[in-house]
Amino acid sequence: MAAGVERARASGARGRIAGLYAITREQADTRRLVREVEAALAGGARAVQYRSKSPDAALRRAQAEALAAVCRRALVPLIVNDDLELALAVGADGVHLGRGDGDIAAARERLGPHGLLGASCYARMDLAERAVAAGADHVAFGSVFPSPTKPDAVPAPLALFGEARARLPVPLVAIGGITPDNAAAVIEAGADALAVITAVFESPDITAAAALFRGHFERRKR
Fold first, then answer.
1. With respect to CATH, is domain 2-217 assigned 1.20.120.530?
2. pTM for this predicted structure
């Protein structure tokens, strides 16, 4: 495992996931999806993940292509959830894999050294260590709070981020039930990025909601 950790330390040139990591909600209307993502980017989202469970492969391809173009213009990475082939097909910046979504080492080989590769590690440090050793350049823990997207998710305590910070050389992503009201506590615990769906895309003002999250990161830098 030590070799994998050293590789992660040496791979900083791939870029870091940090700040507000906006994850799209299910949206059949591609134009509306694009508008929503553009609004989140205007508010300060630093990364976007396209997440869709639609069985319509053509729709997912069209939406991913549209978002890839939007994110390229904004100079913000687009990461595709759970679908390496789609990520490669549309020229996305990377892929995020959950448990059972594919082999991390194989994904790293397909993405090459510069692709972003995230892994869901739930509340388990052992999964995070294995993911980093296999080539993940950021790992996600959650659900840090009760989540409307995944109400049955296992809780991930905030203390896990402090432990991970001491043991892992990669950015840490927090996900699950994060809002502008509890974001500061998650950042203080050690999260580099906050992955958010509901509190951004279900907001009546997506740009303003994203800006609230951006403000928490800006205050941390002062």
1. no
2. 0.91
